[in-house]
Design brief:
211 residues; Pnp Oxidase, Chain A; alpha+beta
Protein backbone atom coordinates (compact mmCIF):
# COMPACT_ATOMS: atom_id res chain seq x y z
CA UNK A 1 0.00 0.00 0.00
CA UNK A 2 1.25 3.50 -0.84
CA UNK A 3 1.33 5.42 2.46
CA UNK A 4 2.70 8.99 2.45
CA UNK A 5 4.10 9.86 5.88
CA UNK A 6 1.31 12.35 6.65
CA UNK A 7 -1.34 9.66 6.06
CA UNK A 8 0.19 7.05 8.37
CA UNK A 9 -2.21 6.51 11.31
CA UNK A 10 -1.09 6.45 14.91
CA UNK A 11 -1.53 3.34 17.05
CA UNK A 12 -4.79 4.60 18.58
CA UNK A 13 -6.38 5.15 15.16
CA UNK A 14 -5.27 1.70 13.97
CA UNK A 15 -6.56 0.01 17.12
CA UNK A 16 -9.90 1.81 16.74
CA UNK A 17 -10.17 0.57 13.14
CA UNK A 18 -9.41 -3.04 14.00
CA UNK A 19 -11.68 -3.16 17.04
CA UNK A 20 -14.68 -1.43 15.44
CA UNK A 21 -14.62 -2.81 11.91
CA UNK A 22 -17.69 -4.15 10.18
CA UNK A 23 -17.24 -6.66 7.39
CA UNK A 24 -13.87 -7.05 5.69
CA UNK A 25 -12.45 -8.91 2.67
CA UNK A 26 -10.50 -12.13 3.22
CA UNK A 27 -8.17 -12.72 0.28
CA UNK A 28 -6.19 -15.92 -0.21
CA UNK A 29 -3.89 -17.07 -2.98
CA UNK A 30 -4.58 -20.67 -3.96
CA UNK A 31 -3.56 -23.13 -6.65
CA UNK A 32 -6.66 -21.96 -8.53
CA UNK A 33 -5.80 -18.27 -8.17
CA UNK A 34 -7.05 -15.53 -5.86
CA UNK A 35 -10.22 -16.07 -3.82
CA UNK A 36 -11.98 -13.35 -1.83
CA UNK A 37 -14.89 -13.40 0.62
CA UNK A 38 -16.48 -10.51 2.49
CA UNK A 39 -17.28 -11.44 6.09
CA UNK A 40 -17.42 -9.91 9.58
CA UNK A 41 -14.29 -10.26 11.69
CA UNK A 42 -13.44 -9.73 15.33
CA UNK A 43 -10.01 -8.54 16.45
CA UNK A 44 -8.20 -10.46 19.17
CA UNK A 45 -5.43 -8.12 20.41
CA UNK A 46 -1.99 -9.24 21.56
CA UNK A 47 -2.14 -10.88 24.97
CA UNK A 48 -5.83 -11.76 24.71
CA UNK A 49 -4.95 -15.47 24.50
CA UNK A 50 -1.69 -17.46 24.50
CA UNK A 51 -1.52 -18.28 20.77
CA UNK A 52 -2.49 -14.91 19.33
CA UNK A 53 0.99 -13.51 18.58
CA UNK A 54 2.57 -10.06 18.82
CA UNK A 55 0.11 -8.32 16.48
CA UNK A 56 -3.05 -10.20 17.37
CA UNK A 57 -5.48 -12.05 15.12
CA UNK A 58 -8.67 -11.61 13.13
CA UNK A 59 -11.34 -14.29 13.57
CA UNK A 60 -14.48 -14.96 11.55
CA UNK A 61 -16.35 -17.69 9.70
CA UNK A 62 -17.40 -18.65 6.19
CA UNK A 63 -20.14 -20.89 4.85
CA UNK A 64 -19.13 -24.53 4.72
CA UNK A 65 -20.14 -24.54 1.04
CA UNK A 66 -17.62 -21.76 0.36
CA UNK A 67 -14.61 -23.42 -1.30
CA UNK A 68 -12.18 -20.80 0.00
CA UNK A 69 -11.58 -22.61 3.28
CA UNK A 70 -11.02 -25.93 1.52
CA UNK A 71 -8.35 -24.64 -0.85
CA UNK A 72 -5.02 -24.26 0.96
CA UNK A 73 -3.71 -20.71 1.10
CA UNK A 74 -0.34 -20.39 -0.61
CA UNK A 75 1.91 -18.18 1.48
CA UNK A 76 0.54 -15.10 3.19
CA UNK A 77 -3.16 -14.27 3.23
CA UNK A 78 -4.68 -10.80 3.58
CA UNK A 79 -7.72 -9.13 5.09
CA UNK A 80 -8.68 -5.66 3.84
CA UNK A 81 -10.31 -3.76 6.70
CA UNK A 82 -12.22 -0.59 5.88
CA UNK A 83 -13.17 2.30 8.09
CA UNK A 84 -15.26 5.30 7.02
CA UNK A 85 -14.78 6.72 3.52
CA UNK A 86 -16.39 9.40 1.34
CA UNK A 87 -15.95 11.72 -1.61
CA UNK A 88 -14.47 15.13 -0.77
CA UNK A 89 -15.74 17.98 -2.93
CA UNK A 90 -13.29 20.80 -3.71
CA UNK A 91 -16.26 23.16 -3.23
CA UNK A 92 -15.89 22.60 0.51
CA UNK A 93 -12.36 24.04 0.64
CA UNK A 94 -11.64 27.60 1.70
CA UNK A 95 -8.87 27.68 -0.91
CA UNK A 96 -11.43 27.06 -3.65
CA UNK A 97 -12.76 30.57 -2.99
CA UNK A 98 -9.26 32.01 -2.78
CA UNK A 99 -7.65 30.76 -5.99
CA UNK A 100 -9.64 27.80 -7.35
CA UNK A 101 -6.61 25.50 -7.66
CA UNK A 102 -8.30 22.51 -6.02
CA UNK A 103 -9.52 19.11 -7.20
CA UNK A 104 -11.78 16.37 -5.78
CA UNK A 105 -10.39 13.54 -3.67
CA UNK A 106 -11.52 10.62 -1.55
CA UNK A 107 -10.90 10.36 2.19
CA UNK A 108 -10.77 7.01 3.96
CA UNK A 109 -9.34 4.85 6.70
CA UNK A 110 -8.17 1.34 5.80
CA UNK A 111 -5.71 -1.39 6.70
CA UNK A 112 -4.20 -4.30 4.79
CA UNK A 113 -3.68 -7.02 7.37
CA UNK A 114 -1.34 -9.86 6.39
CA UNK A 115 -0.77 -13.19 8.09
CA UNK A 116 -1.13 -16.94 8.23
CA UNK A 117 -4.61 -18.36 7.73
CA UNK A 118 -5.80 -21.05 10.14
CA UNK A 119 -9.02 -23.04 9.62
CA UNK A 120 -11.19 -24.01 12.62
CA UNK A 121 -13.69 -26.81 12.01
CA UNK A 122 -14.58 -27.22 15.66
CA UNK A 123 -18.07 -26.62 17.02
CA UNK A 124 -16.88 -25.30 20.39
CA UNK A 125 -14.63 -22.71 18.74
CA UNK A 126 -17.40 -21.74 16.33
CA UNK A 127 -20.06 -21.38 19.01
CA UNK A 128 -17.82 -19.07 21.05
CA UNK A 129 -17.15 -16.97 17.94
CA UNK A 130 -20.81 -16.71 16.91
CA UNK A 131 -21.77 -15.68 20.43
CA UNK A 132 -19.10 -12.97 20.43
CA UNK A 133 -20.13 -11.69 17.01
CA UNK A 134 -23.77 -11.60 18.06
CA UNK A 135 -23.07 -9.69 21.27
CA UNK A 136 -20.92 -7.22 19.35
CA UNK A 137 -23.42 -6.46 16.60
CA UNK A 138 -26.59 -6.60 18.73
CA UNK A 139 -25.18 -4.18 21.31
CA UNK A 140 -26.89 -1.15 19.72
CA UNK A 141 -30.39 -2.59 20.24
CA UNK A 142 -32.53 -1.85 23.31
CA UNK A 143 -33.47 -5.55 23.44
CA UNK A 144 -30.55 -7.43 21.86
CA UNK A 145 -31.19 -10.75 20.17
CA UNK A 146 -29.31 -13.65 21.74
CA UNK A 147 -28.13 -16.93 20.31
CA UNK A 148 -30.17 -18.55 23.09
CA UNK A 149 -33.34 -17.09 21.58
CA UNK A 150 -33.04 -19.68 18.79
CA UNK A 151 -34.07 -23.33 19.35
CA UNK A 152 -30.94 -25.30 20.40
CA UNK A 153 -31.29 -27.88 17.63
CA UNK A 154 -31.66 -25.13 15.02
CA UNK A 155 -28.57 -23.28 16.30
CA UNK A 156 -26.59 -26.54 16.33
CA UNK A 157 -27.52 -27.11 12.70
CA UNK A 158 -26.44 -23.60 11.75
CA UNK A 159 -23.06 -24.16 13.39
CA UNK A 160 -22.55 -27.26 11.25
CA UNK A 161 -23.06 -25.07 8.16
CA UNK A 162 -20.07 -22.80 8.85
CA UNK A 163 -16.29 -23.08 9.24
CA UNK A 164 -14.04 -20.79 11.26
CA UNK A 165 -11.18 -18.76 9.81
CA UNK A 166 -8.41 -17.02 11.72
CA UNK A 167 -5.70 -14.73 10.37
CA UNK A 168 -2.67 -14.76 12.69
CA UNK A 169 -1.36 -11.28 11.98
CA UNK A 170 2.23 -10.91 10.83
CA UNK A 171 2.16 -7.42 9.28
CA UNK A 172 -0.21 -4.46 9.01
CA UNK A 173 -0.13 -1.64 6.46
CA UNK A 174 -2.62 1.07 7.41
CA UNK A 175 -3.61 4.42 5.98
CA UNK A 176 -5.79 7.25 7.29
CA UNK A 177 -6.24 9.74 4.46
CA UNK A 178 -8.12 12.50 6.27
CA UNK A 179 -7.01 15.75 4.57
CA UNK A 180 -3.87 16.05 6.69
CA UNK A 181 -2.20 17.64 3.65
CA UNK A 182 -4.76 20.47 3.56
CA UNK A 183 -4.88 23.70 5.56
CA UNK A 184 -6.91 23.88 8.78
CA UNK A 185 -9.50 25.98 6.96
CA UNK A 186 -9.82 23.39 4.20
CA UNK A 187 -10.11 20.60 6.75
CA UNK A 188 -12.84 22.49 8.60
CA UNK A 189 -14.69 23.02 5.33
CA UNK A 190 -14.46 19.33 4.45
CA UNK A 191 -15.75 18.32 7.88
CA UNK A 192 -18.72 20.68 7.54
CA UNK A 193 -19.42 19.33 4.05
CA UNK A 194 -19.30 15.74 5.25
CA UNK A 195 -21.68 16.53 8.11
CA UNK A 196 -24.12 18.08 5.66
CA UNK A 197 -23.78 15.07 3.34
CA UNK A 198 -24.63 12.67 6.16
CA UNK A 199 -21.10 11.24 6.44
CA UNK A 200 -20.82 11.79 10.19
CA UNK A 201 -18.47 8.84 10.77
CA UNK A 202 -15.78 10.21 8.47
CA UNK A 203 -16.32 13.76 9.74
CA UNK A 204 -15.78 12.52 13.29
CA UNK A 205 -12.59 10.70 12.30
CA UNK A 206 -11.27 13.97 10.88
CA UNK A 207 -12.27 15.86 14.02
CA UNK A 208 -10.41 13.39 16.25
CA UNK A 209 -7.29 13.93 14.20
CA UNK A 210 -7.49 17.70 14.77
CA UNK A 211 -7.84 17.49 18.57
Amino acid sequence: MYIPAHFKPDEATLRELLEHQGAADLITNTADGLIATMLPFLYDPPGSRPDVGELGALVGHVARNNDQWRKPALGTSMVIVRGPDAYISPAWYATKREHGRVVPTWNYVTAHVYGRLVIHDDVTWLEALVRRLTVRHEAFRAEPWSVDDAPPEYFAGQLRAIVGVELLIERIEAKAKLSQNRSEADQAGAIAGLDEAGKADLAEAMRRLRR
